[in-house]
Design brief:
Strand content: 35-45%
Helix content: 10-25%
Shape: globular
Number of helices: 1
Radius of gyration: 13 Å
Strand order of the largest sheet: 4-3-2-1-7-6-5
Structural class: alpha+beta
Oligomer: single chain
Length: 117
């Protein structure tokens, strides 16, 4: 099942959980979830990360990935690391995540109320 999205099919890199390898992925932000897949042709492969209450942070110290950020779901101790190919894409993704979190809390969408550090 493919999620409907507020941001769709942007290419990123995701660091594997147990290794230092980075995989190229596609992402979508929809509702309170951040979806990613390594195979865009297999729509059943979209994996969700819950954004409700998640901590999203800029990551500066990953060699070779200057546009990196992390997402840590509120209900998990796992930290997901992602890297964009440009500052513009990174800000687009972070603004979409911020908008979704703000909409959930207030019922409105205004990314100006969010601060991206």
């Amino acid at each position: 099942m493919e999620p409907s999205e507020s941001i769709s099919n942007l290419s990123l890199f995701k660091k594997r959980h147990r290794t230092a390898k980075w995989d190229k992925i596609s992402i979508k932000v929809s509702g309170t979830k951040f979806y990613y897949t390594t195979d865009i042709t297999a729509s059943i492969q979209w994996k969700p990360i819950e954004l409700s209450g998640a901590s999203v942070a800029d990551v500066d110290d990953i060699p070779g990935y200057p546009y990196a950020f992390s997402v840590r779901p509120k209900t998990s101790s796992r930290i997901y690391y992602f890297a964009s190919t440009s500052e513009e894409n990174k800000l687009q993704i972070l603004n979409a995540v911020c908008d979704q979190q703000f909409k959930e809390k207030s019922g409105a969408g205004d990314s100006a109320a969010c601060i991206i550090q």
